Amino acid sequence: AVVPSLAVGEVSQPLRSGSGYHLVRIKDKKSQEVHLVKQTLASHILLKANELTTDEQAKQRLEQLRQRIINGEDFAELAKAHSEDTGSAIDGGSLGWVSPGVMVPEFEEKMNELAVGEVSDVFKSRFGWHLIKVFDRREENMAEEYKRSQAREQIRQRKIDEDMETWLRTMRDEAYVEYRNN
């Protein structure tokens, strides 16, 4: 309990352990920065209109699936059997823990309106007709992920700036300018 209370650069009093006495000097501390993000554990079923199914038929079929879920059938089993989202259907429609800004706005808005354990009404996004079930919610500290994304963005921007400078230099070198005296 002594070490966490030390500041950077500070040296501890002698500490006794099974292997002897130790002095601890703090060189650096990890940031205690907190970037809490509210995540939702959700699953969905997606049906799309296509050559064989009209938009209205897809909606009605999903309404029937919703009723079956409300009557006690397993969401995951119905998602495996019926969802047209091949990425999540194999996992029973599971989207895993979803952070804000990952899904299209209409999907995220509907998902955020639901209580844990609740199944949404059928709704449409640009991908088709959806049914969502929310299983859990949590607040997760995403400070490290946030820092990584910031670093990636800075590196990307630096690369763009370097490429732009190289391009401008090339354009100047290749430009032909003729001065005429009239």
From TrEMBL:
The record ties this protein, via Pfam families, to: Rotamase_3 (PF13616)
Q: Which residues form the PpiC domain?
A: 37-136
- GO MF term (any one): peptidyl-prolyl cis-trans isomerase activity
- Entries under PROSITE patterns matching the protein: PPIC_PPIASE_1, PPIC_PPIASE_2
Species name: marine sediment metagenome
**PANTHER family documented for this protein:** PEPTIDYL-PROLYL CIS-TRANS ISOMERASE HP_0175-RELATED, PEPTIDYLPROLYL ISOMERASE
**What is this protein called in UniProt?**
PpiC domain-containing protein
